[in-house]
Specification:
single chain, mainly alpha, 5-stranded mixed β-sheet, 45 helices, 10 strands, about 60% helix
């Protein structure tokens, strides 16, 4: 008897053998059932070798209790102690699967299925499983027989007799035998239907690929034809009979009985999914895939395999559809479709499950499967060795053919096997369909031990899982692109190279229009043994994928080569791209999004540093004060006005690049920064940034011109008033700077001297800002001045006051709504805006005549300015529901009501629109409609400038440029038509509101 307070030696031994509840285990060992063998060391050693010794011991006691009599119980014990193969198998299953322990407790004689140990038992196939299921006469007995067969697979799996790939193949073979048995039962219950038709069952998914899980839906497609000798007129009856048999077969496998269920049979991969007929003729299948099938449906057919029913019909199905599978890579947007589908799968995972998903999450099984299938579809057309439905076999063939690097393939193979082993053992425990890693420590401990991790199994399991998932996450994107570099780079002796024709094939599939040129760029960037080439070989696989995600990957790669040629010898450049997470992706997005941003960058490639996430980087726009401070400092250091304005224009070019890059990254999204959800915020940031930059550039240019001509003080005070979009903080990338120039002679200075000085300043500013150079010009437009082009370019404040008092026209009051001081003498600018306030915010609002005049002006502008041949419905500025419609509606509201509503006294369109809504002048719904249209039209104009490098108000006609505009606006490949439809729809709604408000 054990002394009080001291643990028994048995208790200690149980702890040492891995039991977590030694007290309960000790009670079970002392029980009647195990009395004959309780002291046998063989039993304890065998229990300690299982995944969960406590679970194994509990299952063994239950099995002994279930034996029909003492003789049967003793036979089990004797065999257990004497036969090591049975002992390892039986206890291994009991320690890994609570569900199979339940089965053994219900069917106490089934342990005998684990006794045999013959060579043919090591790798069982369809024939052996069919033999094991042959005695089944109804769904219940089929389930019992199925579990008995499953027991033998699980036993050899947990003992290591078969590896994970062999386990998956045997599970698929067992599924094949089960489908055949279920179809046999269905046919026996309806012999007339069986005689009337030919029915073939095509396995899809993991069953078709010989890589099934323990618990998984079995995906199938059914093909039916009339039986031999049955006339064509009876095809409808034959299909009805085939559908009845198929439905019955599915119910036999799927329905829950007293013995549970086997697995669901899922036919939703069929043409038209659940909306399509369950059974189709072969010709109907072929017609569907030729005309209507989507890319993912051809991807699914990679694993199609006849498994049950009429073998001849099944073979005909595969022979008819396989050629279509290998043509899928020629479809437009093929790679983009596959990658989009993968992203959609990840996006649909509940947030709480993402980090525990073995199958669908980032770095999971699906990443490997999608990457392998993508490569198969691209290269399998020319290389038949790649046409395997099994992931690991296909991966091996891809490595052998040079389509995947051998090291990458080996790492993926190892990771995939580990992840599949985890998945198998998780499902085996309760035979439930799940792909989530458990959170409970006890479950994690059992899982880790089942995979051979005995010292600290929980930490070891989580460490290995994260390591393998990281490998998959790192390689699954690069897998497609890295061999393209190997095709042009120097490889180690014995390494297999991707053939030039295969490399071109892959580039075409990625969307490259000129694969030959792309390969030359890759060769120039990645060839050689220098450190620079080595870093490029590390970067390019990822960059190629980002380029391919754009509408013009060729231009992205070409621009990258140009930047690399310009900066390749600069020590910080490649280090920035390699070490700073955001820089490389930001650069790829910018270089492939159109012409404007790359052109700005090429003129000063060192601006690539802005794309990083370190201290020197940052795409956040700089404020006007900061910009003005930098430009004025550069002006002070410069030797003369020309050099000073050149410096100011250089700052402007750099900041335009910063703004464009931030806009592109916000619109495209990156791994680190999702797409900006608030499109209005994007528009506001661009408008404010470009407007502030223009104001700072004008301030610096004014200072430079004055300093060179007059020293520190100009004979006249001088101010620049922003007008139009400039005054409204809404400038786009290609906008001119609309301004008014106002001056006021200093004391003692004559009118003529002051006017001459002011005019010389304006002329020199405009000249210097437009001098041809590497920097984009800044066009200064003063056409909104009194009397337009016929009036003086510069006026005194007194002259403005006299003109506006006597001659001001309605359109001038309208234009002055946007007037805002931007540069020069602040006091003079303030007095100018005070002067025009009564004009733009008339005390009594507008007269009816003035309202009619504004309406006439708008109608004339639209008819005269709309380009000939342009589609009005797609003109972002002058078309129905475009910028002009929204702005004139808002501005008419300001002219009428700003005297009474202070919130309307703003130069900004969206701010005024919000104030009008707040004041009840425009309903919230109408304001939202107008705001949406204005933001969209503004983004269209920005997109056109970014893509084409020149301003435009309509969508491009070139397909690539149109696709690039679509990508900026959030539309994927092949959806340019959806973009145009959405624009028309948005503009049409806005036009309806405009007609109600502007023409009321």
């Amino acid at each position: 008897m054990t002394a009080p307070g001291r643990r028994s030696s048995t208790f200690t031994r149980l702890l040492r053998h891995g039991f977590t509840d030694p007290s309960a285990a000790e009670r079970l060992l002392d029980g009647l059932e195990l009395a004959p063998v309780r002291d046998d060391p063989v039993l304890l050693e065998a229990l300690g070798a299982t995944a969960d010794p406590d679970l194994a011991l509990h299952g063994l006691v239950r099995l002994l209790e279930a034996q029909p009599d003492p003789v049967a119980r003793q036979e089990l014990l004797d065999t257990l102690i004497a036969a090591k193969p049975l002992r390892d198998r039986l206890l291994g299953v009991l320690g890994a699967s609570e569900a199979l322990a339940d089965h053994l407790a219900r069917h106490a004689g089934d342990w005998q299925a684990l006794v045999t140990y013959e060579p043919r038992d090591l790798h069982r196939g369809v024939e052996e499983f069919e033999s094991g299921l042959a005695a089944a006469t109804d769904p219940v007995s089929l389930r019992v027989a199925y579990r008995r067969c499953l027991l033998s697979i699980a036993a050899r799996d947990v003992c290591g007799t078969i590896d994970v790939a062999e386990t998956a193949a045997e599970l698929a073979d067992l599924a094949t035998a089960t489908l055949r048995a279920a179809l046999r039962l269905a046919e026996e219950s309806a012999p007339e239907d069986a005689a009337r038709c030919r029915l073939a069952v095509i396995a899809m998914g993991k069953c078709g690929g010989h890589e099934l899980n323990y618990v998984s839906d079995v995906d199938v497609i059914f093909v039916g034809e009339a039986a031999e000798g049955v006339g064509d007129t009876d095809e409808t009856k034959a299909l009805r009979a085939a559908t009845s048999l198929a439905s019955h077969m599915m119910r036999i496998c799927s329905e829950t009985t007293v013995e549970g269920t086997i697995w669901p049979v899922d036919a939703n991969l069929r043409p038209e999914g659940r909306n399509g007929p369950l059974v189709r003729t072969l010709s109907s299948h072929v017609a569907y895939y030729q005309r209507w099938a989507k890319t993912w449906e051809f991807q699914a057919l990679l694993k199609a395999r006849p498994v049950a029913g009429d073998p001849g019909l099944g073979a005909e199905y595969v022979a008819a559809l396989q050629p279509l599978v290998w043509q899928a890579a020629e479809r437009e947007n093929f790679v983009a479709d596959v990658q989009k589908m993968r992203r959609r799968v990840v996006e649909n995972i509940p947030v709480a499950e993402v980090d525990r998903q073995l199958k669908l999450g980032p770095g999971g099984l699906r990443d490997v499967e999608f990457a392998v299938q993508l490569l198969q579809l691209v290269h399998g057309r020319a290389d038949t060795s790649l046409r395997s439905g099994t992931t690991l076999d296909a991966l091996k063939a891809l490595a052998a053919g040079g389509y995947v690097g051998r090291t990458d393939a080996a790492q993926l193979d190892e990771a995939y096997r580990f992840l599949r082993s985890m998945e198998h053992r998780i499902q085996l425990h309760r035979l439930r369909r799940t792909h989530l890693v458990p959170e409970d420590d006890a479950d994690l401990r059992r899982l880790g031990r089942s995979l051979g991790l005995r010292n600290d199994p929980v930490s070891g399991l989580l460490r290995d899982w994260k390591r393998h998932a990281a490998v998959v996450r790192r390689l699954h994107e690069k897998l497609f692109y890295r061999p393209l570099l190997d095709a042009v780079a120097q490889l180690a002796p014995g390494e297999t190279r991707l053939r030039p024709d295969a490399a071109r094939e892959r580039l075409v599939a990625l969307g490259y229009a000129d694969p030959g040129a792309a390969l030359r760029h890759l060769e120039a960037l990645a060839s050689g043994v220098t450190r620079k080439a080595a870093i490029q070989r590390t970067l390019l696989p990822v960059l190629l994928g980002w380029f391919a995600d754009s509408a013009d990957p060729d231009t992205g790669l070409l621009n990258f080569r140009k930047v690399s040629d310009a900066l390749g010898n600069t020590p910080w450049y490649l280090r920035l791209l390699r070490d700073e997470g955001a820089a490389a992706e930001n650069l790829a997005r910018v270089l492939s999004a159109g012409r404007l941003a790359p052109d700005l960058l090429m003129r000063a490639p060192e601006a690539v540093a802005l794309l990083g996430d370190g201290d020197a980087g940052g795409l956040a726009p700089r404020g006007r004060a900061q910009l003005e401070q930098e430009i004025l400092a550069a002006v002070r250091r410069a030797d003369g006005a020309v050099q000073a304005v050149t410096a100011a224009r250089g700052v402007r070019r750099r900041e335009l690049f910063r703004t464009a890059a931030a806009d592109i990254v916000g619109s495209y999204g990156t791994e680190a920064q999702p797409v900006e959800a608030d499109q209005g915020a994007l528009v506001d940031r661009v408008g404010a940034a470009v407007s502030d930059l223009t104001a700072a550039t004008l301030a610096g240019t004014l200072r430079a011109v004055v300093r060179e001509g007059w020293g520190d003080t100009l004979p006249t005070r001088f101010a620049i008033i922003g007008m139009g979009r400039f005054g409204g903080h809404e400038l786009g990338y290609g906008s001119d700077a609309d301004v008014l120039f106002v001056h006021e002679p200093r004391d003692g200075v004559g009118e003529r001297e002051a006017a001459d000085a002011a005019n010389k300043v304006v002329a020199e500013m405009r000249r210097l800002l437009q001098v041809p150079s590497a920097d984009p010009p800044l066009i200064v437009d003063a056409d909104l001045r009194p009397e337009g082009k016929s009036g003086p370019l510069v006026r005194t404040l007194r002259s403005y006051e006299a003109y506006y008092r006597r001659w001001s026209l309605t359109w001038e009051s309208h234009a002055l709504l946007r007037a805002e001081f931007v540069a020069g003498d602040g006091d003079l600018g303030r007095r100018f805006t005070e002067l025009v306030d009564p004009l733009r915010y008339p005390a009594q609002g507008l007269t009816e005549e003035a309202v009619r005049e504004i309406r006439r002006l708008k109608a004339r502008m639209e008819s005269e300015r709309l380009p000939r041949g342009a589609d009005p419905k797609l003109h972002a500025k002058l078309g129905p529901g475009g910028l002009s419609d929204v702005e004139w509606t808002v501005q008419l509201t300001q002219l009428r009501h700003a005297h009474a509503e202070p919130g309307l006294r703003t130069t900004r369109t969206r701010e005024a629109l919000a104030a009008a809504s707040e004041a009840g002048l425009i309903s919230a719904e109408n304001a939202a409609t107008l705001d949406e249209a204005w933001v969209l039209a503004t983004r269209v104009r920005n997109a056109v400038m970014l893509v084409r490098g020149r301003a435009g108000d309509t969508f491009p006609t070139d397909p690539r440029e149109l696709a690039a505009v679509g990508r900026y606006l959030g539309y994927g490949p092949g959806h340019a038509g959806d973009m145009l439809d959405a624009y028309r729809r948005t503009a049409r709604r806005a036009r309806t509101v405009v007609e109600d408000l502007f023409y009321e």
